[in-house]
Design goal:
263 residues, alpha/beta, five-stranded mixed β-sheet, 13 helices, 50% helix
């Protein structure tokens, strides 16, 4: 069955599912690709996609305007962006790091929303590729951040990223890690499946050479010894894209709000 035929078949199936709304063809192609062109897997992924989005509506999918007060505040504390290059295997690379150690205005829920918006943005108008790798720079992690972690928010985000979003997270790299990473992982571990845990790597400060073995320097900004120039410029590109997606995010929010009210 071709991709076009699978999209037609999914649209017919969706028309019979009360809990799944009409979905654009461009989005359905993401599910065809992410499921390995397996029809039953694509149906399951679509069901999970909407069920996790409804469940996580208040945390992750409401008020997704990159310029609202909450998002502006978190963007003053964190940079989150996609590398313009992929790994040799074709994996897209998302990088996120703090630009401030200030925790008074830190909000984990808004940070996770920003993170998910960036990941979803990487699926729009882009080559899909085989999956994503994520680089978390946790050099500025403090107990102040950890005290603001929300187990409920971590659970909803993890469930969506592992079971609902139409992409595969191939690896997670926690770089410039301090001993506080053990506390962070203890908080997150109950919500991560064993497969993803096996593909998560922790590198201490000074161990970037280990990262380069999987994410080459030409894929990284200069703050990580890379060749792409400063992170700020890459972050600006992502912010511009998220502004362009405001209408799409607002349309999705309206659909999810209706589904949530019906559930």
């Amino acid at each position: 069955m071709s991709d076009d035929q699978m999209v037609v078949a999914l649209k017919e199936w969706i028309s019979e599912q009360a809990e799944i709304p009409e979905t654009p063809d461009s989005d359905l192609r993401l599910f065809v690709h992410s499921s390995g062109r397996d029809m039953e897997a694509a149906k399951k992924l679509l069901s999970n996609y909407y069920s996790h989005r409804v469940s996580g509506y208040d945390n992750l999918f409401k008020d997704r305007d990159v310029d609202n007060d909450a998002m502006t505040s978190i963007r003053s504390l964190y940079q989150t962006f996609m590398s313009p290059k992929t790994t040799p295997e074709g994996y897209k690379i998302m990088i996120t790091h703090a630009v401030s150690t200030e925790t008074k205005h830190y909000d984990m829920t808004t940070q996770m929303k920003y993170f998910v918006m960036t990941l979803e943005g990487s699926l729009i108008d882009e080559d899909l590729g085989p999956g994503h790798v994520i680089v978390f720079d946790i050099s500025t992690l403090t107990t102040g951040h950890i005290l603001k972690f929300s187990p409920g928010g971590i659970k909803k985000t993890s469930n969506y990223l592992q079971e609902g979003i139409p992409l595969k997270i191939q690896n997670v790299f926690l770089v410039n890690a301090s001993p506080l990473v053990d506390i962070m992982m203890k908080t997150a571990k109950p919500f991560l499946n064993m497969d993803l845990l096996k593909r998560t790597f922790i590198y201490k400060a000074g161990d970037l050479d280990k990262l380069y073995e999987r994410v080459p320097k030409d894929c990284l900004p200069e703050e990580y010894g890379g060749e792409l120039g400063p992170s700020a410029a890459l972050n600006d590109v992502n912010t511009t894209k998220l502004r362009r997606l405001k209408d799409k995010f607002a349309q999705e929010e309206a659909i999810l709000k209706t589904l949530k009210e019906k559930s």
